[in-house]
Amino acid sequence: MTIDKYNMLEERISAWGQSNDEITAIYMVGSRARADKSFDEFSDIDAVVFSTNPPFYFQNDEWLRDIGEVWTSFLFQTAGGDPEKLVLFDQGLQVDFLFRHVSDFESLIQSNKIPLGFQRGAKLLVDKTGKGQQLLPATTMAPNNPPINQDAFIQVVNMFGFACLYVAKQVLRGEMYIVNQRDKDCKQLLLQMIEWHAKALHGASYDTWHAGKFINEWADKEIIDHLKLSFGDYDPTNSWKALMASFELFSRLSSEVAHIYSYTYPVSLISNIQAWLEEQQASFELKAEKVAD
Fold first, then answer.
1. Domain 2-135: which CATH class?
2. CATH topology for 150-292?
3. Hey, which residues does 76 pair with through a beta bridge?
């Protein structure tokens, strides 16, 4: 039933675009436009709108009423840093609107380039130019990610070590809210290493998607099993165990990536952090025993 509601919302977006003289083309991208991974009832609509006046649509909400009843809307940024408008329509239906100027459309047509967000699949909803089909990929493909190199690898290892130690100190202080916030930094760096590890094993073109999407499918089962141990909660003991699991997994994967690519590996950094964590763990466990008594 929800999927039917999204179909109706898609039709209303198309009708709005057709009747708006400032709109030249609208594309739907993301999960609802992909061919290789099916969407479900919770998949939102990602709309790319080419307009003569993008700032108006970011700064105003009146136009949304022509599409449907709005619960809320606000400005955000895409993963690539482009401004977008996130909207919740009636019944919790979500649409992410990305507006681009019509000059961008013409530039893409002239350069014969498929936009990055279109490469996994796109659907043309509105086309007043007669050229909109030219931006649809003939075959879907995974976007090309920046290649791994020695400098990027060392940077991620250094940042993980720094973030891991910081989180550990907050656990020892009992600052659990900060722990849960800053652990996200560790997890983002751990995800990057998991992606690089998969590409090191399977080749640079191996599809690791983005933001951990479909990780259960593209990452090795052993990694997923270990990853399950790396998420704690608001409890200091569980958070410490999760942090140690994250550190162990990152250390192993980063060492293997360095070996495969013949990169220099900061052995002293990892060993120093490991020694510090083990020393603090003994003290942490002693305090936990006293509290339990």
1. alpha beta
2. Four Helix Bundle (Hemerythrin (Met), subunit A) (1.20.120)
3. 84
| Of 117 and 157, the one with more pLDDT | 157
Q: Which residue ranges make up each domain of the chain? A: 2-135, 150-292
Q: Are 124 and 133 in contact (CB under 8 A)?
A: yes
Q: Which of 68, 64, 74 is nearest to 90 (CA)?
A: 68
Alpha-carbon Rg for the chain, nearest whole angstrom, is 23
Give CA 287 to chain center in angstroms.
Answer: 38
Those residues whose C-beta lies under 8 Å from the C-beta of residue 194, and which sit 6 or more positions away, are 208, 215, 219, 223, 227, 253
Please name the residues in contact with 236: beta carbons below 8 A apart, sequence gap of 6 or more.
171, 174, 176, 284, 288
Instruction: Please report the pLDDT score of residue 137 as a whole number.
Output: 87
The size of the chain, in residues, is 293
Tell me which DSSP letter residue 38 carries. Answer: -
147 has a pLDDT exceeding 50: yes
Q: Model confidence at 289, in pLDDT bands (50, 70, 90)?
A: low
12 token code pair: 């209303």
The pLDDT of residue 225 is: 95
